Amino acid sequence: MPKSARSKSSRSKSKARVLSSRVVYRGPAFWVSFDEVLEPTGVRARRDIVHHTGSVVILGVEQGPGEPRILLERQYRHAAQSFLWELPAGRIDKGEKDLAAAKRELLEETGYTAKRWKRILRFYASPGFVAETMAIFLAQNLRSGTAQPEADEVIQVRMVPLSKAVRMVMSGRIFDGKTIAGVLWLAQQKTKPKPRR
Questions:
Q1: One digit per residue, pLDDT tens: the chain, 197 residues?
Q2: Spatial separation of the C-alpha atoms in residues 53 and 113, rounded to whole Å
Q3: Partner residues linked to 55 by β-bridges
Q4: Which residue from 8, 17, 78, 142 has the highest number of Cβ atoms inside 10 Å of its Cβ?
Q5: Beta partners for 61?
């Protein structure tokens, strides 16, 4: 069997066959469906899925004479019933590219812009029942400006040294998954041995 045919065949076997699907809720940020599926393992089941257009996360890094500093924001999250320290983030609007969304969200929430951008991670937020993907972008060469938050956003912004952000993660002061991923990614990059010449 040709390689292209094999890869197509293995891909089709790695997805569930949707026997029926019904949208039971549609809101401004996401929609929910009840799906009856036959999974590749042979399991037939009902799966309740939260659908989302995807989100972007911005790891804004300011290089200084010492260690890098990370742009964090603190805001109230009703689902968590508390104020959380987070990386700036937001939803990708329909038809919008993820990099454009990242630039827009950074400006809206913090007032910052960046000259250098690079996508560093892409993952599912909670793949058991949420179809939302998240892409983390590294944003460098930051320039401060005026934030343009939405009417329901009250955001406190702070530059935090990387070592302090790591301590906040390890002590449970940073409780947000996407932020934990971004902070630990950057810490790992800083401790990775440099290749020999």
A1: 445 444 444 445 688 899 999 999 998 888 899 999 999 999 999 999 999 999 999 999 998 788 999 999 999 999 899 999 999 999 999 899 999 999 999 999 999 999 999 999 999 989 999 999 999 999 999 999 999 877 788 899 999 999 999 999 999 999 999 999 999 999 999 877 766 66
A2: 23
A3: 91, 134
A4: 142
A5: 70
DSSP string, 164-187: HHHHHHHTTS---HHHHHHHHHHH
- Rounded Cα distance between 77 and 79, Å, is 6
Instruction: Return d(Cα 195, Cα 46) in angstroms, integer.
Output: 50
Residue 110 neighbours by CB distance under 10 Å: 23
Residue in 147, 121, 122 with CA at minimum distance from that of residue 133: 122
- Separation of CA 106 from chain center: 13
Return phi, psi of residue 99, to 5°.
-65, -40
DSSP 15: S
Number of residues that this document lists for the chain: 197
pTM of the model: 0.85
Judge residue 178's burial from the number of C-beta atoms within 10 Å of its C-beta, 0-12 exposed, 13-18 middle, 19 or more buried. buried
Sign of the Cα torsion 78, 82, 87, 88 reads positive
